[in-house]
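Changelog note: in this version the structure field was regenerated for every chain. One regenerated record is shown below for reference.
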Amino acid sequence: MRNLFIISLLTLALSAKAQDVKELTLKDALRYALENKAEAKKAKLEMEKSEYKIQEVRSLALPQITANGGLTYNPVLQTSVIDGSAFGAPGTAIQATFGQKWVSTAGIGLDQTLFDLSVFTGLRAAKSTREFYQINNELTEELVIERVATSYYSVYVQRERLALLDSTYANTAKVRDIVQGQYNNGIAKKIDLDRIVVQLSNINADRQQVSNQIQLQENALKFYMGMPIETQFTIPKSEYEINLEILSDAPNTQNRTEYLLLKKQEELLEYQKTAIKAQLYPTLSLFAGYNFLGQGPEMPWFAKPAAGVYWSDYSSVGLTMRVPIFTGFGTRSKIKQAESDIKLLQEDIKDTELSLDLDYRNARAQIENNLVIISNQKENMQLAMEITKNTKNNYLQGLASLTDLLDAQNESLEAQNNYTRAVLNYKIAEVALIKSRAELKSLIK
């Protein structure tokens, strides 16, 4: 009964583990990555942060209202010496003490910018700033998609290689059993049996190596997706397809996110240059204030005139104009620096445009070459499998040697590996070509 109970627990555990294994399509992987990968999350947070930056710029054009207050105690009042003639005593000096021991102020002030070119330039740049972060978010998502898609296909091909090795191992094991029976009956030689055992050992070593590679690549894929490492998944066969329609049209390089981001950055640098120039223009602002002043020999708070404390109010409204006359050529130097930054970026834009066009040309050439290689390798693989099948039949009938059979199996395994590698190279080039067409988002639709 105890053994039955343990077996039941193991069965339930294995069943639960099997249920945790989910099928993962490329679209599922990409959507998961865009929702969970740190880079994608951070790009969205940067967009959110940019909105607050825009609000900060807008606040400069809104009224600035402040409240103020103060309390001062003067233990020793200042004494001033004045001419006594004002008090009917010419030729004498009178020492007079001004002020009160306690002084308290409270009021409210307003400042409103009426004209400041740098503020207005910042307001115009706010829209471009938002668009810059939106494009940057798009670029980040594209980088995540490219990395996940490439890793996804690598995992798939390695799993196919492992399945191929498993099949080859099973077929070779059947041949070993046949040779073992022949050897037991004195038909086959010991060296034949040893050779087939060595062949099995080599295949098993390859299986272990590929299995380790799968583990490493799966962990890398999960990391790129932001998925917990312990998660298990399977990849459906439908992801292993050739798409010939991708070669239809040449892309417009100026639609690439990398190019758009640089152009938006150039626009922001132009605004920055205009904002520096604005330092040469006058500024005009309105100010207004309304205040209360309390003073007397005692602390004015809550005190009354009977205690010698009096409160009075005063107000002021005015305009402030600032006209720059000479800044020591500092502003001019800043303008020249801004112009240099724009010229440097324009060179980067030209170089990026050439680089993006090169990426497209290279990806297209790789796809075209891989299509030819895939076609050839597929024919070689089918031919090698047919040769292996015929050689095995001939071996069982005594018409072929064990060497012929082992050579045929090795050639068949190599042909199938070459085919899977060719398809992997094609899929990687396909991702690069889709990226060059600015259509990576199409992989999740």
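Spot check on this record: Residues 1-19 have pLDDT under 50 and may be disordered. The helical segments are 2-20, 26-36, 38-59, 117-184, 190-225, 257-277, 330-396, 402-436.
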